[in-house]
Specification:
Two copies of one chain form a homodimer. In chain A, α6 links the parallel β7 and β8. In chain A, 34% of the residues lie in helices and 29% in strands. Chains A and B meet through α5 and α6 of A and α5 and α6 of B. Bound molecules: adenosine-5'-triphosphate (ATP) (2 copies) and magnesium ion (2 copies). One magnesium ion binds next to α1 of chain A.
């Protein structure tokens, strides 16, 4: 599903060069559940943004479903992104003056999903994440963990075959985190959805099958998750 | 240092009433290191905002250093807040188009700290948090964990006798989290700074001496931290 060849992402900031990604080559197959770990600043979010087609590498190749994404036109790329990838951002990226329900509906607006179906799916996702009753609340009226779950709900509603989740449990208590992870495991095992998940917590990573570790923009290990 | 009596914070949202705080009465003495835990939505951030004088309760009393904060004038309250309390927000609250250095300088602007001293202290704090070399970068040029550490640096620079830290390690890898916690322990033991810290992680809470647990706006336990 995902193949990268010698990806680099280099930021030039004045005289400094920051190598966020430094020759990342790896493959992730359909149906895998992969955890991505590593110290702060090691390139995890940058990697997620590149494979989620939200950012471009400085150099290197990225094949999504066998297609070189650099050769895609902008509209085709946006369509791929919207249909194939559900994204949970590290900073949530919720629309601030918009209800939880409407935030979760956003991906479906791009699909021309009919209004009634949009609302039903968004409500289903919010309920699955314990937010029934809070759908009309704006992000400023929700706690940190509640906002995080709205972000997760939004990633689920398009039935995308690939979910990229950047630290989806950082603001969640243990019990809620485990519930989220069990939901991801069900999506992976029953629906064959590919999941790539960034986390700092080994307990959370232990729900995955394979763990990729980053350090200073490099992959320093890639093996079966310890359980 | 902190005494609350039957604090309530009730939000009315249409027909719904959300009791973020529901009769919270407790005391925190100078020099304590307290962890605050509880499920998502249980009232932790609300409590932190009230004791940090960033928000007012619906009812109840709050004495800071023996003074009833509801009887303070706005300017006096702002001054108390700026001199006595360092705050690490759950969402960081960094100024987006401002460098890390300038973000950390902000609390000192309110104190009329001289420019050279402002810069030196801000650099000291950024260096203590592993961000030397990144001081001129804006939040958008920093990773999630790097932004979080800028937020922590900002809380330290006024030498406030009370630090309120709302999930200060949620985006940090274990090694960096332990370093932050050891810094907090040093500040508490050597400088007698009172620390109140929200966390979901028992490993992080174990650095404290006392753990207060919230559930649905109530304190459900308040005892020595298990080690
Ligand atoms: N837009 C940008 N401009 C400049 N540098 C950036 C930018 N985005 C990220 N970086 C830098 O690239 C490096 C990798 O960042 P990245 O966000 O991928 O790290 P991360 O592994 O996700 O860290 P964290 O665990 O703290 O979230 C960091 O040093 C970061 O400061
Ligand atoms: N401005 C607001 N308007 C309405 N409701 C609010 C507001 N702020 C918080 N709430 C609600 O009050 C309750 C407590 O919120 P609070 O942010 O204190 O929880 P928390 O314990 O910090 O949760 P988390 O662990 O998710 O950060 C939640 O149900 C939340 O949705
Ligand atoms: Mg990141
Ligand atoms: Mg909170």
């Amino acid at each position: 599903l995902i193949e990268t060849n010698e990806l680099k992402k280099i930021y030039l900031l004045g005289e400094n060069e920051v190598r966020a990604l430094d020759n990342v080559s790896l493959k992730i197959n359909t149906g895998e559940f992969v955890a991505v770990m590593g110290p702060s600043g090691s390139g995890k979010s940058t990697f997620m943004n590149v494979i989620g087609c939200l950012d471009e590498p400085t150099s290197g190749r990225y094949l999504l479903d066998g297609i070189d994404v650099s050769k895609m036109e902008r509209d085709a790329l946006a369509q791929i992104r919207n249909k194939k990838i559900g994204f949970v951002f590290q900073g949530f990226n919720l629309l601030p003056r918009t209800s939880a329900l409407e935030n979760v509906e956003v991906p479906m607006l791009y699909n021309n999903t009919p209004p009634r179906q949009r609302k039903d799916r968004a409500m289903w996702a919010l309920k699955a994440l314990g937010l029934e009753g809070r759908e009309h609340h704006h992000p400023s009226q929700l706690s940190g963990g509640q906002q995080q779950r709205v972000a997760i709900a939004r990633a689920l509603v398009n039935d995308a075959p690939l979910i990229l989740a950047d630290e989806p449990t950082g603001n969640l208590d243990t019990k809620t985190s485990v519930e989220i992870m069990e939901l991801f495991v069900r999506l992976n095992e029953e629906n064959k959805i590919t999941i790539v998940l960034v986390t700092h917590e080994t307990d959370i990573a232990s729900f995955s099958q394979r763990t990729i570790r980053f350090l200073d923009g490099h992959v320093i290990s890639d093996k079966a998750t310890k359980r």
